[in-house]
């Protein structure tokens, strides 16, 4: 049987990404960490880690071993909490991954009450629009905005995602307001990728539109700023522009057309059987905060995203840019991370 301390050192090295970093966390020298890992590998009769001068990587055997060690350590943590009658008390470090924009707007502002209620818990949060390897990179939980794919990981839905077409009142006063999907051909559509097709569920069933515009970017925040600056029409999630819709800074277009995706906001974690208290409390905190009708959705619905200003007499009554759509790219609002498009954006 392996020494339990060796298992903990192995798991910490994988999570930290290096022996020196793991040693600092554990109060051990890199030489001691290396010796304990070699002892573990010798006992198992197989190499768990590929070591280079810059990094370490799990071997195939090491990957499977690591997944099981993480489950064992989580189970031990739960057992200790049960015995000490502190099952509702979170301790240690919680490593969290979240998309950049959503994390900044809807996770970070609500961390303070969670951390005050769990004073013995430290949070290590990585905001990134890359799809992280939760197990391989040692994350306890990841927030993802995506269509849920089949996976060995466990997911809990925190909130639905609703995406709407929108533009500023000033843009609509100059270019007119589209009344049908076909009318969007006369507008500058702000997009993410060249393969984009906007898909909707409308009063007549499923419909789609291939947008054209003069701005294409891989950044959801650039699209957000561009639509707020009056550059064109965008397809945005209400979590991203709910306040602007409520305040009238943006106007929802074609409200009878809902974006046809199964995108949701999920908390993803490695194991249902061994769910550490710190992970459960974190997920419960945000699930309760967001609810079935999230606060950003309530604000957007209350404001209706409508332009209450009187339109000038000479404002065009049907949409249309007299110069035609601007030259530029065709794009896709689905790059995978920030706004909740099918690939996660």
From TrEMBL:
Q: Which family does it belong to?
A: Belongs to the LysR transcriptional regulatory family.
- Name of this chain's protein: LysR family transcriptional regulator
Record domain HTH lysR-type: where:
1-59
InterPro entries the UniProt entry points to:
LysR-type_TF_proteobact-type (IPR058163), LysR_HTH_N (IPR000847), LysR_subst-bd (IPR005119), WH-like_DNA-bd_sf (IPR036388), WH_DNA-bd_sf (IPR036390)
Q: Which organism is it from?
A: Oceaniradius stylonematis
Question: Where are the compositionally biased (Basic and acidic residues) regions?
Answer: 304-316
Keywords of this entry: DNA-binding, Transcription, Transcription regulation
Which superkingdom? Bacteria
GO molecular function of the protein, one example? DNA-binding transcription factor activity
Q: Where is this region: Disordered?
A: 301-345
A Pfam short name: HTH_1
Indicate, by first and last residue, each region the UniProt record lists as having compositional bias (Gly residues). 330-345
């Amino acid at each position: 049987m392996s020494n339990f301390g060796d298992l903990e050192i192995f798991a910490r090295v994988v999570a930290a990404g290096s022996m020196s970093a793991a040693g600092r966390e554990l109060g051990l020298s890199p030489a001691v960490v290396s010796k304990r890992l070699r002892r573990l590998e010798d006992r198992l009769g197989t190499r768990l880690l590929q070591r280079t001068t810059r990094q370490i990587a799990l071997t195939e055997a090491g990957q499977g071993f690591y997944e099981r060690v993480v489950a064992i350590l989580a189970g031990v943590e739960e057992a200790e909490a049960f015995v000490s009658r502190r099952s509702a008390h979170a301790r240690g470090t919680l490593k969290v991954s979240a998309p950049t924009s959503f994390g900044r707007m809807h996770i970070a502002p609500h961390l303070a009450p969670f951390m005050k209620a769990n004073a013995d818990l430290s949070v290590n949060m990585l905001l990134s629009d890359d799809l992280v390897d939760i197990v391989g990179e040692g994350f306890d939980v990841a927030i993802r905005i995506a269509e849920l794919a089949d996976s060995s990981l466990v997911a809990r839905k925190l909130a639905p995602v609703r995406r709407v077409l929108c533009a500023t009142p000033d843009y609509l006063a100059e270019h007119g307001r589209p009344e049908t999907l076909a009318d969007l051909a006369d507008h500058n559509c702000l997009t993410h990728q060249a393969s984009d097709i906007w898909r909707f569920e409308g009063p007549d069933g499923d419909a789609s539109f291939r947008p054209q515009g003069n701005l294409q970017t891989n950044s959801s925040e650039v699209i957000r700023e561009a639509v707020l600056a009056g550059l064109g029409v965008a397809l945005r999630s209400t979590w991203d522009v709910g306040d602007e819709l409520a305040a009238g800074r943006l106007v929802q277009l074609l409200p009878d057309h809902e974006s046809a995706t199964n995108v949701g906001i999920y908390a993803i974690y490695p194991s249902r059987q061994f769910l550490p208290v710190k992970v459960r409390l974190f997920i419960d905190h945000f699930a309760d905060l967001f609810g079935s009708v999230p606060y950003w959705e309530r604000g957007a619905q209350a404001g209706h995203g409508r332009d209450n200003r009187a339109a000038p007499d000479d404002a065009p009554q049907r949409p249309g840019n007299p110069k035609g759509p601007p030259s530029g790219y065709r794009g896709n609002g689905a790059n995978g991370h920030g706004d909740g498009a099918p690939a996660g954006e």
